Amino acid sequence: MIEVKNLEKTFGTQKVLKGISTLFEAGQTSLVIGQSGSGKTVFLKSLLGIHTPENGTISFDGRIYSEMSKDEKQDLRTEMGMVFQGSALFDSMTVEENVGFPLKMFSNKTPKEIKERVDFVIERVNLIDAHHKMPSEISGGMQKRVAIARAIVNNPKYLFCDEPNSGLDPKTAIVIDNLIQEITKEYNITTVINTHDMNSVMEIGEKIIFLKNGLLEWEGSNKEIFKTDNEAVTDFVYSSELFKKVRRMYLEEDSESK
Known about the structure:
By secondary structure, the protein is α/β, with parallel strands linked by helices. It is built from 10 helices and 10 strands. The mean pLDDT is 90. The chain has 2 domains: 2-79 and 157-256, 3-Layer(aba) Sandwich (Rossmann fold), CATH 3.40.50; 89-155, no CATH class. It has helices at residues 40-47, 70-77, 95-106, 111-124, 140-152, 170-186, 198-204, 224-227, 231-237, 241-256, and strands spanning 2-11, 14-24, 28-33, 55-60, 63-64, 80-83, 158-162, 190-194, 207-212, 215-220.
């Protein structure tokens, strides 16, 4: 669980985060949405400890980040997994080497233990016969699977994903969404995803927070987002005619069931 209280972050004279408070539960896929410039990236980087907020607290299962020692913060980082927007794989390493990199860097496992763990997570993300291939030899969807395998290889408590579906076709994006949600529930991970993909919001948005101009404008589930009358949310989410139609259908079905 990650608890955020009154988070504020300023760059120069611009206040980017303006008192955000929210809670991310373990075993739940939480999505952060909002227009460019809304504060999503700064918020995610604050959770990761890359940015230091001027005010507010971030607690990881009751541990307040700003009160941790340097060693405690380092230990916390080993509990985090990260899936970057462009996968960020090492071009000169095979799939197996990419996935095993965090274990070699941040664990005391033997080569045999590393091999066993790497084999396990590669199988878990359904990568078949890809161990010895280079990133350039596999598809974008497979590269995302490698990135997810690398992110979970160290058994993280917290998983952060930045636009995990960027550059993927819709069908592959759904596969990646489902994989992230499955892993989140299977290992009871606290998962936070920055996304512009409204399909992801509708498919796996168990909790959604909508940021606007550095403020938490709205939060709820993918079911509740259909019912909201928050104009900023509806303008953002239902900007396309397809999602407007989906919302109308949902509201009509909901009305008929009452």
